[in-house]
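Anyone able to model this chain together with NDP?
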Amino acid sequence: MQYRHLGSSGLKVSALSFGSWVTFGAQIDEEMAEQCMTTAYDAGVNFFDTAETYAGGKAETMMGRVIRRAGWKRSDLVIASKIFWGGKGPNDRGLSRKHIIEGTRASLERLQMDYVDLIFCHRPDVETPIEETVRAMSHLVDSGRAFYWGTSEWSAEQITAAHGIARQQGLVPPTMEQPQYNMFHRHRVEREYARLYREIGLGTTIWSPLAGGILSGKYEHGVPQGSRSNAPGYDWLRERFESDQGRQRIALASRLRPLAEDLGITLPRLALAWCLRHPEVSSVITGASRPEQVSENMKAIDDLDKLTPEILQRIEEILGNRPEEEENFR
Ligand code: NDP
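re: yes, here you go
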């Protein structure tokens, strides 16, 4: 495993990490979650990701119990949770001071932990002043409930505003973002945040590196049995995969597969290594519903040097979606 600094912070996270969305509590039971987490841990993963909303809190409970039972040393782990959707009540969602603090307390209880290493604002909240959110997140760090805070799917403008407020008011600034990043979804990581890496040392822990499974190539002949798009409550995901855009992506995955085969690796390994190659990606959060997938995905860490400029160019030609660089008028 490689360990990378989370942006310009002193913290090191495994370049491949492991998350619990869709899977824990919705698609797989605790025994399977334990097998997946143990396989990841044995491969050197130190960073595990969850959120208050995953399976209505069950994912955190399961993750906390697995870690307890495994007896892993807390200081060897980097645990992340995310706050925004905590329930149905008017104050159970969003980024008010009240929900941020109450939501984090409840997450910690479910995880059976005194602190999380990373806490993210799961989405921007248009109804709450950014200053209120920044103060509450900064308080979480000052009170020892989290070590670093960041955002997920915030625009560069929103992150810059939050950072500026924190700096002006002597509060703890956000230092990390959790954006979607994969071969189909590139603009934010490659273009929009470019200045933030330089100017505020932003780190990124990126999600859905396989585009929910499409980049494993297994949707080529329809929705496979036992996949997340068959999980109860995830009809919307199946519809997305079966939409025109979903079909186009499945077709692109089929065109990428021979390239992976030329390199002697599988398509998911190629797609994960492609995310890992980006210098501003601190950690690629993988997901899996069985330990065999975890073992397969962890191999991607050894595939980075296979991505020569020529191979990357062949990938660009298939994808045809490279974001334009910022114009330099000098
Ligand atoms: P991926 O895009 O990598 O999708 C993972 C899924 O793909 C697996 O659950 C599995 O689904 C399938 N898969 C994985 N490996 C293989 C393989 N080797 N061969 C075949 N199929 C495979 O990542 P996720 O969408 O799960 O996102 C990763 C993590 O990121 C989440 O767990 C969560 O922690 C975080 N996240 C954060 C979000 C945010 O808003 N901040 C949003 C979404 C995720 P199947 O069961 O169908 O086989």
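The first helix runs from residue 30 to 42.
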